[in-house]
Sequence to fold (604 residues):
Amino acid sequence: MGAATRPMPLPLRLRRLIAPASFIAPAALAVILTMAVPMADAVLLSLQHWNGMAAPSWAGFSNYSNLMRDETFFRALWHTAYFTVCTVILQTILPLLIASLLNSGIRGSTVFRTLYFMPVIISLAISGLLWAMLFEPNFGAVNGFLRAVGLGRFAPLWLAGAGTVMPSVIIVSVWQSLGFYLVIFFAALQSVPSELYEAAQLDGANPWSRFLHVTVPTIWPVILIVIVLNTINGIKVFDQIWVMTAGGPNYASATLGTYLYTIAFGAMGASNSRLGYATAIAIVILVLSIVVSMVQIRLGRRRDLDSQIEL
Amino acid sequence: MTVSPTILSRRSLRGAVAKAAWPVIFTRTLVYLILVVIVVVEAFPLMWMIITSVKDSHEVFNTLLPTEIKWQNFPRVWFAMNFPVHLGNSFYVTSLSVALVVALATPAAYAFARYRFPGRELVFYAFIGAMMIPPQAILIPMFQFLKSLHMLNSLTGLALSYVGGGVAFAVFLMRTFFLSLPGELGDSARIDGCNDFQVFWHIYLPLARPGMATVVIIQSLYTWNEFMFSNTLITSPDKKTVQSAVFQAVGQYGTDYTALCSGLIIALVPVVLIYLALQRQFINGLTAGALKG
Fold:
């Protein structure tokens, strides 16, 4: 009893730390062990030559300087940029427009949202496997449809063609994620006060200019979040491409994610798997996604909306 | 006689409404048409998958609909692709990682929301920073780390590899949830003699159930659907999770589309069932992460 009432300033301050520290410590330990330590390890590994078996040797920045001379790396970088730019544009604009249609006071919007959401719960791997069957050039359903409507002459090779493989991969991504971003936009649209639309209508604004001048500015913080999410997902894209093409044909759909995987695990068991080199690509992915999303947040942040963005 | 002006005005009003209604009806029809076309585009692959799964294997490319529904594709694939084992593996990995994430993240999120202590912001931003790390960056170190612990090809090791990222995200999400709960509840419980842990356990934890449900949904779907880690950290066929097992099956079954489609459907059934049962929470849960971010 006496111990509890004795004035002890410093131990008391420490004692006030005991509760929050013991609440946070287990979670912090988990994040340190399975995120921070591997991340630090990755940085070190990117500075080493290692085949995963013999002792690793220091490489300095040679993995990075070798990347600068690697043509396939630049192709993968280009495909990653291509994929990211297209998905950011399509996976922001399409869901936003469709969400606006659903929010225009039509009946059955819940039914539509539920239907659109179905592909979202399907994994990227399974979506990819499913679309690989649909895209099969000879007897796949997509070309079957083209032939049935008389467009058989244009039936492309889809995933098997070097020129069509990236657009095909992008179609799958848009198909899979539409419902997800649509539901995010729909929730945001419902928070737009209807007086804003009524006022715009009184001023004679048509639906399109109401969309551009009322909807877009009002929900801009959410649009920015969707752009950033799409960007991060685009830069690290792997699952659907790996199951559909493994980066082929002949690296025509190789992204940074699939290229590093090919280097690290494509030659599993073989002594030439270059883990340090692959990790250097992973670090490029990390730096790209941080830098690009930071720039987007900087550019996208408007002073008058600052208070609404909590990122 | 006094009624007639009313009827007259009503009639002219109806005429005016009908005149104005035509463009409205036209745009409404157009909107519905667009929405239905998108439903067709979104649903077609799924319908095709379901129809193909019950076709006879020589009908796949010739007919639109099966002449006879062949349910036997499912039991055939169920055993041939060894689904009982793979579903069990996925179930084990998912429940273990979800349980760990919820158990670790809930008290941490509570502390970030309810305590003021030096370095709070810094530690919290470290958690947020961990969310930014792309999975590829830690894949190779994780592979070597588990290998050195002799936990490569171990389902427990795979489940553990998901915990850090899951915890970071869950702390972020749950903190917002705890912030929305009134602080007075804890203060009055403390006056009644509860210590810090009792306040958390008896007062706030029961109230945090909806937040925990959100974390459970997000983490379950993420873990169940995860492909890259499960395909890399697990090497022996009988330990594969559902995702990498169906990927392996493609090489084996090639163009036996009826078998592949039945396999994909079996792989999808667990998430679809949860989705149908918890539709609203599911959609809210998944979008909460994005909206609160």
About this structure: DSSP finds 13 helices and no strands in chain B. The radius of gyration of chain B is 27 Å. Residues 1-9 of chain B have pLDDT under 50 and may be disordered.
